[in-house]
Amino acid sequence: MSQCKTKMGSGGTCLCVNCGFTAPHQPSLPCKEMKCPHCGKSLFREGGEHHQLYLKQQQKKGII
Ligand SMILES: [Zn+2]
Fold first, then answer.
1. How many angstroms separate the Cα of 53 from the Cα of each of 27, 33, 48, 60?
2. Neighbouring C-beta atoms of residue 16, cutoff 10 Å
3. Would you state the torsion angle of the CA atoms of residues 58, 64, 29, 42, taken in this order, to the nearest 10 degrees?
4. Model confidence pLDDT, tens digit, residues 10-62
5. How far away, in angstroms, is 6 Cα from ligand 1 center?
6. Domain boundaries along the sequence of the chain
7. pTM of the model
8. Which residue from 2, 13, 21, 55 has the fewest beta carbons nearer than 10 Å?
9. What is the 19 CA–ligand 1 centroid distance (Å)?
């Protein structure tokens, strides 16, 4: 029924990589559609594809 079947399912956490804010992921609302209440940035799905990509980019820059 779902258009997106991943092993992550509908649970999980949305994460602001800027300040570390987290919010429970809502099945009807993608994390990237949510904004951090502290810094206004789009949230990442914790451990998700884009989050891992972001972390790799940061490691390349030597920030982490
Ligand atoms: Zn934030």
1. 22, 18, 9, 11
2. 21
3. -70
4. 679 999 999 999 999 998 999 999 999 999 999 999 999 999 999 999 999 98
5. 26
6. 13-61
7. 0.72
8. 2
9. 4
